[in-house]
């Protein structure tokens, strides 16, 4: 069963209308798909196209299984300047119409796991980049959506937070959530992702499991990085 089905003919910006082209893949329930590509390949643009955040989008994105409940964890944290961390949590819970005792107990576990309890009444503008990213992650995990769309989570997080995030990703997969995660941290992607969509220069060059990519690149047993290198010439 798919929870996200993506078919982008072309999408982009006013001055570069086909920044990404011919991107087609899906994410299954309980599946983690890695959106892989070099800097500027088109990963964030693909994610923004999926979320309908671009001025140009010719294509179709479907969330077949669900009430279209997804959570987006952007590369650049974005938050309400005037709301504290706790108020962000309250707000997300209210928007998702969550039961009060459920969201409160979930929030307290998340705040503890991500070591953010000491700043719950602080404004996120006073947080470090990694702490702001943790806020985005906590709010997303709180709502237990059917689909997560995560743009490069590993850059700002410290090793402990990274480990915790990956732990939650696995837990959410086991719950049946589908996850699309862009990254260029290929060794982590290789270890955790079930399948991959490789993008280069705005186009998808291959899509499938590591085994499929190894066959495609004729590199049996190779690391994702080596397949990637071969594909990019
Ligand atoms: N706001 C924008 N306006 C015009 N072009 C843009 C804009 N944002 C990105 N682009 C262009 O779209 C292309 C893909 O960029 P994108 O940000 O999607 O890459 P990425 O794979 O996410 O890169 P990175 O790994 O560096 O985050 C690049 O050529 C970039 O210059």
Automatic annotation (TrEMBL):
Any keyword Aminoacyl-tRNA synthetase? no
Recorded hits in SUPFAM superfamilies, A to Z, give: P-loop containing nucleoside triphosphate hydrolases (SSF52540)
InterPro entries on file: AAA+_ATPase (IPR003593), ABC_transporter-like_ATP-bd (IPR003439), ABC_transporter-like_CS (IPR017871), ABC_Transporter_VariousFunc (IPR051782), P-loop_NTPase (IPR027417)
What name appears for this protein in its UniProt entry? ABC-2 type transport system ATP-binding protein
Q: Where is the ABC transporter domain?
A: 1-226
Recite the UniProt keywords alphabetically. Answer: ATP-binding, Nucleotide-binding, Transport
- Is Hydrolase tagged as a keyword? no
PANTHER family linked? ABC TRANSPORTER ATP-BINDING PROTEIN ALBC-RELATED, ABC-TYPE TRANSPORTER ATP-BINDING PROTEIN ECSA
Q: Name one Pfam family in it.
A: ABC_tran
Q: Name one GO molecular function term.
A: ATP hydrolysis activity
Positions in coiled-coil regions: none
């Amino acid at each position: 069963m798919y929870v996200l089905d993506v078919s982008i003919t072309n999408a982009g910006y006013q001055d570069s209308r086909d920044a990404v082209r011919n991107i087609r893949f899906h994410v299954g329930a309980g599946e983690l798909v890695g959106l892989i590509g070099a800097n500027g390949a088109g990963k964030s643009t693909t994610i923004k196209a999926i979320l309908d955040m671009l001025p140009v989008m010719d294509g179709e994105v479907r969330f077949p299984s669900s009430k279209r409940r997804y959570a987006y964890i952007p590369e650049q944290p974005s938050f309400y300047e005037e709301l504290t961390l706790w108020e962000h949590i309250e707000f997300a819970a209210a928007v998702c119409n969550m039961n009060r005792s459920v969201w409160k107990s979930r929030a307290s576990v998340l705040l503890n796991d991500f070591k953010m309890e000491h700043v719950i009444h602080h404004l996120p503008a006073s947080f470090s980049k990694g702490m702001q990213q943790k806020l985005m992650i906590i709010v997303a995990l709180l709502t237990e959506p059917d689909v997560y769309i995560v743009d490069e989570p590993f850059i700002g997080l410290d090793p402990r937070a990274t480990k915790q995030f990956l732990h939650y990703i696995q837990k959410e997969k086991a719950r049946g959530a589908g996850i699309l995660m862009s990254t260029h941290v290929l060794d982590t992607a290789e270890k955790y992702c079930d399948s991959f969509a490789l993008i280069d220069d705005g186009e998808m060059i291959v899509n499938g499991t590591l085994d499929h990519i190894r066959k495609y690149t004729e590199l049996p047993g190779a690391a994702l990085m080596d397949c990637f290198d071969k594909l990019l010439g």
